[in-house]
Amino acid sequence: MVREEEEESRSDEGVFYALDLGGTNFRVLRVQLGGKAGGVVHQEFTEASIPPALMGGTSDALFNYIAEKLANFVAAEEEQKFHQPPGRQRELGFTFSFPVMQTSINSGTLIRWTKGFSISDAVGQDVVAELTKALQRKGVEMPVAALVNDTIGTLAGGRYTNKDVAVAVILGTGTNAAYVERAQAIPKWHGPLPKSGEMVINMEWGNFRSLHLPLMEYDHAMDVESLNPGEQISEEAAFFGDEVHAKLKISFILRTPDMSAMHHDTSSDLRVVGQKLKDVLEISNTSLKKSRIVVKLCNIVTARGARLAAAGVLGILKKMGRDSLKDPQKTVVAMDGGLYEHYAEYRGCLENTLRELVGEETASSIVVEHSNDGSGIGAALLTASHSLYLKDKS
Ligand SMILES: Nc1ncnc2c1ncn2[C@@H]1O[C@H](COP(=O)(O)OP(=O)(O)O)[C@@H](O)[C@H]1O
């Protein structure tokens, strides 16, 4: 839970940095905030992927790599574009989207890795301290003022420009959601109530389990397979001939962008499907009939994922009492993540399902919006509102 304090922070101005590590890619963002009415004056970012070897190495190796990219980006800051009020240090917001036990606004211990990372010596460590040490090793003196989850960052970034943003959903390598809740509706909160009367809930909905969403045999197979690769491969079907092709036995060989390309193949002979099967799986000469079945399969898998995500959003809207609005008040759901952004069929199915679930009348008051890197801006804003510099001066 994070207290809603952005409102008071708008007097902040200066250069803020945000670093976003949430999966296969990480981004570094530089923002010039223009004070009370100025908003975001300038922003620049750079992106890099995490080399697979570093995803399973040591904490130092990962954070050294990140610190080096950040150091290079900071060194490239141009004086003509970015101005820092005199005597004020640049500060950093760290968006770290893995399960963390947050111990303060700028510290938190890693509970476990997800999304393909497995760096055992980082588990149980304060990720802000790990990052800070690496920055110091690279000669970057930039305090980390806020540790943020990407859903929280997206919510804060979205709300900064549009007060109707009340929900943020990430659909990328992983998935999660956050929303604005009435503080009084949070039984486990016994502290003082925030002035706004609202708090933000980070749902960590990737861990959601419910009897209402039964796991299918394929879910179990995938779960087991992800821990013990190679042990749970179904060889019952021989769809592409009498034998199961060798590449089909390799877990996770078919990446979402390839599946998406096949799903969106509009050519009359489904040549993208044929090409992908050949390139990725080394299966050639697939008949048109079989290619059509492959597209249908892509559709089944996508529709299930999209409908589950829509059900999750409906759950939030119900909890907020916004699932049957008849008045013109809008509820904006800020979405981000590569899956939502790039997979048009997925995105369309999610939005149609949500409309179907809330009904036409309410659908007009629910707006699903792509928040383009709202998370980075949000992290920079939260950094500004929790500035260590301001704390020191007050
Ligand atoms: N062209 C694409 N079509 C479908 N899915 C895509 C495409 N490009 C990326 N993705 C999905 O987006 C995910 C990356 O999401 P992103 O939000 O960029 O990063 P991350 O969650 O790793 O920080 C990939 O794992 C992949 O599933």
Bound molecules: adenosine-5'-diphosphate
Percent of sequence in beta strands: 15-25%
Q: Low-confidence spans: pLDDT under 50, at least 5 residues?
A: 1-11
Mean pLDDT, nearest integer? 89
Strand arrangement within the widest β-sheet reads: 1-11-10-9-12-13
The CA-CA distance between the termini, in Å, is 25 Å
Binned, the helix content reads 25-40%
User: Count of helical segments?
Assistant: 13
**Rg over C-alpha atoms, rounded to the nearest angstrom:** 23 Å
Largest sheet: 6 strands, mixed
- Give the structural class: alpha/beta
Give the topology string: H per helix, E per strand. EEEEHHEEEHEHEEEHHHHEHHHEHH
Number of strands: 13
Cα shape: globular
EC number: 2.7.1.-
Pfam families: Hexokinase_1, Hexokinase_2
Keywords: ATP-binding, Glycolysis, Kinase, Nucleotide-binding, Transferase
GO biological process, one term: glycolytic process
What is the compact description of this entry?
The protein has 394 residues and is α/β, with parallel strands linked by helices.
